[in-house]
Design a protein that fits this description.
The structure is a single chain. This protein is an alpha/beta fold. It is 37% helix and 25% strand. The strands form two sheets. It has a nine-stranded mixed sheet with strand order 5-4-1-8-9-10-11-12-13, with helices on both faces. The chain has a four-stranded mixed sheet with strand order 3-2-6-7. Strand 11 and strand 12 form a beta hairpin. It binds adenosine monophosphate. Adenosine monophosphate binds at residues 9, 11, 13, 27-29, 82, 98, 124-125, 148, 150, 232-236.
């Protein structure tokens, strides 16, 4: 079984949704991604936290077998914090505050044992940090990236540069439209393919996802839920599970990528049923398998 190297934010999130609020809960794109990928395969994490990062969160990540050698802890530093709400739209977070804290001066240095990583997940963080990590990996077989509206606004050129260096680009429908200035998702996806990736996966929240490659399209619904508690981390657990499943199976073909996407959707559906990491903390593979089969049946005709 291969390992997945993940870089991205490790955060303390304060979130409001129609179901309630949480303050300074464990979050971050890399945290969600690593928690999901570790359901399937070993994970190496690259990130940074301050000395305000609670020990219980580190213990949780360790309990999942996640390698934390690449997680720096800065004495006197403040952990990245994100504050947002989903009051008007459960499919789109409204950011109230982003405090970069220790991410502002972060220089990722990969431990020796990480440099040979074959699968790399560039989770959401400043795209220049994603590029710095990619520069240090010797010979990756598959690189997947994610991003968000903030970086498309602040660092569009760097985001495009990242897209040019990955095999799979994942982004949501709004981000795809924003990055390409194209309303039609198929046209937007095809434009993004021209930057270099072999596949572009567009997430559509409760409506599932669409994969666009040079010679095929693949569309899958989301696992249907009658209640969403907290959409935070859905995209990160979706992408983390895709990478974990590819690592577990060792099969990087497009056919297996389709299965990985359905597993990703299954884990994402569990994520949104609780606040913070609650939905994936005790998640078992048989529940993921059950949701995978459910979606397979949902689409059969
Ligand atoms: P998502 O899967 O898109 O819901 O990702 C949610 C996570 O993204 C939250 O746990 C936040 O901590 C994290 N996040 C929010 N803003 C940023 C940012 N600017 N850079 C990196 N991570 C972020």
């Amino acid at each position: 079984m291969k390992e997945v190297l993940i870089v991205g934010s490790v955060a303390l999130d304060s979130i409001e949704t129609p179901a309630g609020t949480v303050d300074n809960a464990l979050g971050g794109a890399a945290t969600y991604g690593a928690a999901a990928a570790s359901l399937f395969s070993p994970v190496q994490l690259v990130g940074v936290v301050g000395d305000d990062f609670p020990a219980e969160h580190t213990q949780f990540l360790e309990s999942r077998g996640i390698d934390l050698e690449g997680l720096q802890r800065i004495e006197g530093g403040k952990t990245f914090r994100w504050k947002g709400d989903y009051i008007d739209d459960l499919n789109a977070a409204v950011t109230h505050e982003t405090q970069l804290g220790v991410f502002e001066h972060f220089e990722p240095t990969l431990p020796e044992s990480y440099k040979k990583a074959e699968l790399v997940f560039l989770a959401n963080i400043n795209p220049s940090l994603q590029l710095q990590v990619l520069d240090q990996v010797e010979n990756p077989k598959l690189v997947l990236c994610d991003t968000m509206n903030l970086w498309i606004n602040l660092a569009r050129e760097a985001v495009l540069k990242v897209f040019g260096r990955v095999d799979i680009a994942v982004l949501n429908d709004g981000e795809a439209r924003m990055l390409t200035e194209e309303d039609n998702l198929l046209v937007a996806g095809r434009q993004l393919l021209e930057l270099g990736p072999r596949a572009v996966i567009i997430k559509k929240g409760e409506h599932g996802s669409l994969m666009i490659t040079r010679d095929a399209l693949f569309s899958v619904p989301a696992y249907p839920l009658d209640k969403v508690v907290d959409p935070t981390g859905a995209g990160d657990t979706f992408a983390g599970s895709i990478m974990g499943y590819l690592a577990k199976t060792g099969d990087l073909s497009d056919a297996n990528l389709r299965r990985a996407i359905v597993y990703g959707g299954a884990v994402a559906s569990c994520t949104v049923q609780e606040f913070s990491l609650g939905g994936v903390r005790d998640l078992k593979l048989d529940e993921i398998e059950r949701r995978f089969q459910f979606v397979r049946d949902l689409c059969a005709f």
